[in-house]
Design brief:
Layout (H helix, E strand, L loop, with lengths): L19 H10 L20 H12 L18 H52 L2 E6 L4 E7 L12 E5 L8 E4 L3 E3 L9 E6 L6 E5 L5 E3 L1
Antiparallel strand pairs: 1-2, 1-5, 2-3, 4-6, 6-7, 7-8
């Protein structure tokens, strides 16, 4: 039974509902209480479903207990759907980054190798001018070249003459090179004959280094 005004549902009595204070307040203000569910009648609409009223009463008394699938206000946790969405986005960007690196890597290797070979040729040419003798550059295989400091200008390796060997694949793996001939830098900075060097690597466009008759060096 619930508290009511005298004459509506019988004599006034003390309610057995846990909302004791609300019952007395309703009795004092003249508002009626439903005799079966202890819910206050409303003049503005239908009474809410019993399940909804019980859920509201439960969460008001026990706000720390969360309902499955519903995040409480102020909670900083993440749901499983949010975690899966975040992981999918991260994996997509990671895949794109790996693909871009695989495509761009050989291009940068080729550029670096071409710059290194051109720089070695520039230094060799300047050495020929400074020392006033010839320098001979020969390619022994597809990644190694030798530079001879030809002091007596006879084109032969003799005792006392310095020979330096350079392996391009030590710094630029997978890069190969070929030449149309040996390069002879004269003391005046020119070459005995123009030469073209071609650099190659799988997955990248070939690079060419041309040495003109005047001794100019150009990377293409």
């Amino acid at each position: 039974m619930c508290a009511t005004r005298e004459g509506e549902f019988g004599p006034a009595h003390v309610p057995t509902s846990p909302f004791l204070g609300d019952a007395f307040h309703a009795a004092e203000t003249g508002r009626g209480w439903h005799p079966r569910c202890f819910s206050r009648t409303s003049t503005r609409g239908h009474i809410a479903p019993r399940k909804e009223r019980i859920g509201y009463m439960f969460h008001r008394r026990h706000p720390a207990i969360a309902t499955p699938g519903v995040r409480r206000r102020g909670s900083s946790g993440k749901t499983m759907a949010e975690l899966l969405a975040t992981m999918s986005v991260v994996m997509t960007f990671a895949g794109m980054s790996m693909l871009t690196t695989a495509q761009v890597g050989p291009v940068y290797l080729m550029r670096g190798a071409a710059r290194q070979v051109a720089a070695d040729l520039y230094r060799t040419r300047m050495s020929a001018v400074t020392e006033n003798n010839r320098y001979l550059v020969q390619f022994t295989d597809n990644h190694t070249d030798t530079i001879l400091d030809d002091n007596n200008n006879d084109g032969l390796t003799e005792t006392g003459e310095t020979v330096r060997t350079a392996n391009i694949q030590l710094d630029w793996p997978g890069v190969t090179m070929s030449s149309s001939g040996a390069i002879t830098f004269l003391p005046n900075g020119t070459v005995s004959a123009p030469v073209t060097i071609t650099l190659q690597k799988c997955g990248a466009t070939d690079k060419t280094i041309t040495i003109s008759q005047a001794g100019s060096i150009r990377v293409q």
